[in-house]
Amino acid sequence: MCSRLQPLCGQSCARELEKARLQLQEEVRQASGQLLEERKKREAHEALARRLQKRVLLLTKERDGMRAILGSYDSELTPAEYSPQLTRRMREAEDMLQKAHAHSSEMEAQLSQALEELGAQKQRADMLEVELKMLRTQAAPAEESFLFSREEVSSLRLKIEELEGERRHLEEDKKMLEAQLERLTLQGDYDQSRTKVLHLRLNPARAARQQLHEGRQQLQDECERLRELVRALERGGPVPADLEAAAGLPSSKEVAELRKQVESAELKNQRLKEVFQTKIQEFRKVCYTLTGYQVDITTENQYRLSSMYAERKGDCLIFKAAGPSGTKMQLLETEFSRTVQELVELHLLRQDSIPAFLSALTLDLFSRQTVA
Description:
The chain is mainly alpha-helical. The protein has helices spanning 2-76, 79-186, 204-235, 241-247, 252-291, 341-350, 354-371; strands at 293-297, 302-307, 317-322, 328-332. Strands 1-2-3-4 form a 4-stranded antiparallel beta sheet. Strand 3 and strand 4 form a beta hairpin.
C-alpha cells in the first residue's frame, strides 16, 4: 500500500512543480513583453524629442536669417521711406515674433511633455527590469527542484512499469491455472481424497448410450432403404411396394396427373410471357410516341434515352439510378450531353427537374429541325 502511495505523492508533487514552473515562465514572458513595449515607447519618445530639438534649431536659424535680411533691407532705404516701411515691418515682425513665440512655446511644451513621458517610461522600464530579475531568481530554484522531481518521477515511473509487468504476469498465470482447472474438471478429474464416487444401479449414462445406439441403428436402416430406392429409380423400373410405402412416394397415376399439370402451367407461363412481351413493346412504342424518347436498359441501373428529333443516331442521354430505392436519377456525361450544358445547368443543377430538362431538350431539337 505504501509503495502505491509513494508514486502518487511523487506524481502530485511533480504536477504542482510543473504548474508553478509554467506559471513563472508565463509571468517572465509577460514581463519581457511589457519591457519590450516600454523600450519601444521610450525609443519613440527619444526620437520625437530629437525631432523637436532639430525643429527648434531650425526656427532659431530661420529667425536669425530673417533679422539679417531685414537689416540689409533697412540699409538700402532712404530716410523718407524708412519710417512707414519700418512701422509696417515692425508690425509684421511683431506678428511673426508672436507666432514664433507661440510655436516655440508649443514646441517647448511638447518637448517637456515628451521628456516627462520619457522619464516615466525609463522609470517603468527600470521597474520591469527589476521585476524580471526577481522573477528569474524565483524561477531558478523552481527549475532546479523541477529537475530533481523529474528524476524522482522517472524512477517512480520505472517502478510503476515493473509493478505493472509483474501484475500482468500474475494475471496470465492465474488465467492459465484457471483454464487448466476447468479442463481437468471437464475431463472428469477430481480430488480423490475429498470426493467419493457413487455408482447407481439405474445409470442414466448407460441408458443414454443405449438410446443413442438404437437411434443410430434406425438411421442406418433408413439410409439403406433410401439407397435401394435410389438404385431402383436410377434403373427406371417399378419401385417395390415396400420401398414405395416406406418412402411415401405418390403412385404412377398421380405422377402422370402432376406431369400434365406442370405442362399446362408451363404452357400458360409461355403464353403470359408472349403477352407480356407484346405489351412491353406496345408500351415502349406508346412512350416513344408520347414523350419522344426511346428508353433502353444498357446495364444494371443504367438507362439510355434517345430522342426522335436527334440529329445523329448516336446522340443519347444516359441516366443512372441511385439511392436506396433507385428513385433518384443521375445524368452521366456523354458526348451529346456536353453539347447541351446550358440546359443541364438550368434544369438539372438549378431547378433539379429531369422532366423539365427532357421537355426543354425536345423543344430545342424540334426547333432545330423546324428551322433547318
